[in-house]
Amino acid sequence: MSNKFDSYQKRRLQSSYFSVVISIALVLFMVGILGLILLKSTKVANIVKEQVAITLFLKDGISDEQITTFRASLLEEPFTNSAIYTSKEDAAKIYSEEIGEDFLEFLGKNPLKNGIDIYLKADFVTPEKMQELEEKFLKNAFVADVSYDKPLINLLTENIKRISFWLLIASSFFAIIATILINSAIRLTIYSKRFTIKTMQMVGATKSFIRKPFILTSIKLGLIGAFLALIALGFVVYYIDKFIPSLAILQDYTTLTILALGVILTAFIITLISTFLATQRFLNLRTDELYY
């Protein structure tokens, strides 16, 4: 009879552990998906920002050597990703192709100017910084005028801020949900052992001695759940990279490392804290309160 009861208890315990691992894995998988969106949203935003150019129209009479030297100096600036020079002859050809006719035949001369398109680094694509750059370039002896799409920059900055805000809200919400779900799963497991905890306490075991095996077991379950979540995330990352290769997720080792460490660290911290609080609660209960 005792052997049957022990076998039954062992199966219940294994079933309980299995439920905890699956719960943790599912929650961490969702957290990992959200983390991936957060990490890649920054990169996507930066890619979009770095497509923005500020155009410098150069004054007439500047020699090719001066233009080359000026462009080289721009490439050394901390805000420059790339600087592309377009002569006024090339600009005229491009404009003629766009409108479908040679406008030089009507005008008799080329009114366009030599120009340099500066593609900025993402950190400098804000209305304030681009305004500062515009004022700086207008003081340059080679620059006749500066042009960039101000409404687009304002709209881009506002949209990125709005998206980042809602992603932060969603992240916080899911983090709270993840903590609650994992905490509930662990509490239910420890609840089934509340009598064992109280018995050990009554025979003189210290709180830290009683708490230690529960914490170690929960951390192991959490890490197993994290490992399963990372396997599922690996498949998701693979298919995203396959269907949206421009994101280059599989080549972004920094993002993948941060994501993996984040999932593992989340599992470790939540299981540690949840187990500590759950065991502490039952350690502080009176014997007659264990039945409620």
What does this protein structure show overall?
This protein has 292 residues and is of the alpha+beta class. It is built from nine helices and four strands, in the order αβαβααβαβαααα. The protein has helices at residues 2-49, 64-75, 88-99, 104-107, 127-138, 150-191, 194-202, 207-243, 253-283, and strands at 53-58, 80-86, 115-120, 143-147. A four-stranded antiparallel β-sheet has the order 2-3-1-4. Helix 1 packs across helix 8, helix 6 runs parallel beside helix 9 and helix 8 (207-243) runs antiparallel to helix 9. The radius of gyration is 31 Å and the shape is elongated.
What would the principal axes of the Cα set say about the shape? elongated
Tell me about the largest β-sheet: 4 strands, antiparallel
**Mean pLDDT over all positions:** 78
Helix amount, in percent? over 70%
Keywords:
71% helix; 292 residues; alpha+beta; four-stranded antiparallel beta sheet; 9 helices
Write the layout of secondary structure elements.
Layout: H1 2-49, E1 53-58, H2 64-75, E2 80-86, H3 88-99, H4 104-107, E3 115-120, H5 127-138, E4 143-147, H6 150-191, H7 194-202, H8 207-243, H9 253-283
Antiparallel strand pairs: 1-3, 1-4, 2-3
Brief account:
Helices cover 71% and strands 8% of the residues. The protein is an alpha+beta fold and 292 residues long. The radius of gyration is 31 Å and the shape is elongated.
